[in-house]
Amino acid sequence: MAQSTTDLHRPAAPGTGVRLMALLNEFTNGLDEWPDALWQLDEAALGEVVGGMLRITARAENVAALATADALSRGTVANSTATGAPAWVARQAAGVEPAVVRRVGSVGVDCADSANQVVVEALATGSASVPVAAAALRQVPLILPQLPTADRDDLLSRYLSLSDYGARTLRELTTRILGEYAPQQLVRDEERQQDCESVFWADLPSGLTRFVAELSGGHAAVVKRALRALCAPSPETPTAPQGSPTSTSEDPAVLLETGSSAPERDMRTPAKRRADALVRLVDTAAGVLDGTSPRPVGEFGGTAKILVTMDYATLYEGLQKAGRLGQHTSDNTELAPTYLPGIGRTTDGEHLDAGTLRRMACDADLIPVVLGTDSEPLDVGRAKRLFTGGLRTAIIHRDQHCTFPGCDRPPDWCDAHHVRPWWAGGETTLTNAALLCARHHTIVHRDLLTATVTPTGVTWDLTPGLMPTRPGHRPAA
User: Fold this and answer.
1) 430-374-132-349 Cα dihedral, nearest 10 degrees
2) Distance between CA atoms of 368 and 139, rounded to whole angstroms?
3) Average pLDDT, whole number, for the chain?
4) Alpha carbon of 92 to those of 80, 140, 310: distances in Å?
5) Is 311:371 a contact under the CB 8 Å cutoff?
6) β strands within 131-235, DSSP E
7) Residue 150: band (very low, low, confident or very high) from pLDDT cuts 50, 70, 90
8) How far, in Å, are 94, 173, 201, 385, 395 from residue 299 at the CA level?
9) How confident is the model at residue 165 (pLDDT cuts 50, 70, 90)?
10) Residue 334 pLDDT greater than 90, yes or no
11) Which residues contact residue 222 at a Cβ distance below 8 angstroms, ignoring those fewer than 6 apart?
């Protein structure tokens, strides 16, 4: 039975609805004046406008979903000519992104169900957003069958509490739970996805060709890893005249360390860089397959890096149960599939089940990382054919992306920065390294920033001037 959101909260004082409608109309009309008034604001005020408008957008989406639930409970939607809540919402919000309309309508339907009071409360208080609520309502039914003693409302509350981390985190949490309690389901899901894979292309009127690929999670991880490894911006380093001893290009990280002139920006768009990476991969693979080119090494050396992350106790127990530690049984289980609990995490953040990892191990570089009690790498395997060492792999595992506050650029776009410069006695070790993208690597050297590094993370101190400077050298711009 549909419920009204007013059934769950103390009704507002008489006249509140009329007052709020007047404020809504005033605010909506005032939005048209904002663009022409921005020039009057100082830099701090501009930041407040950006933050305030985005917070209002998120909060307003919550209210819209709750209002949709009320419209359903009153019969407003049923008495209209709309085919359902999303269509009714679309009529009220002409010009709004269709994905937002569908999301608000779908969550509104769920909020009208008395079984989802936890979701209504979270949206009403602002402790969860509509995208996270939608993700929680999709993910919890997937794991409930695997956790028969769990309470649905408790699981929903736990998922909604992760609102600050976004909907993707909720999906990853589901994968990790299934990997622990129902690894066979993840294997079946991957196999079903592989059966539905497709690639097709179409010639466009412009002369271009559009390629469309629908791949399983495991196969997509391999493709995305390969493309991301080659699509990072490639700044051009200024070169000296021909014959000069400095005419060869230098590593941008070295230029930053020495304070030399910065390389020129790569002006290609992200989409163009990905297209170039795809063509480069295909050209290289074609040369290897037809025998005209040797198998490459270095940046082409691996099809994917998979970090299989688990604590030592879990790894030992899993191997023992699978009979991989010298145990022998009389049962003939060699032909039966083995589903080990656990999840693998690629350097791009993709979570893959153990079955997919075993299949990929034949073609990809599998890098095991065994963790201690504080999640610090105890041992990092070396992948064959890769022009990277175990130390960089450990740094990638720990940092996962650029470590500068607020940045999430992937590891392949990052340099491993010496927090204490090597010329000042800094060692090339895990606890003196931090991943930094090109932009923030430049800023760190420009502002002479330093950080505190532990085996489990990097914390930047944004106070300028704390990094040691080489005598006689100016900071890099």
Assistant:
1) 40
2) 28
3) 75
4) 12, 30, 49
5) yes
6) 198-203, 209-214
7) confident
8) 48, 31, 28, 10, 17
9) confident
10) no
11) 303, 304, 360, 363, 364
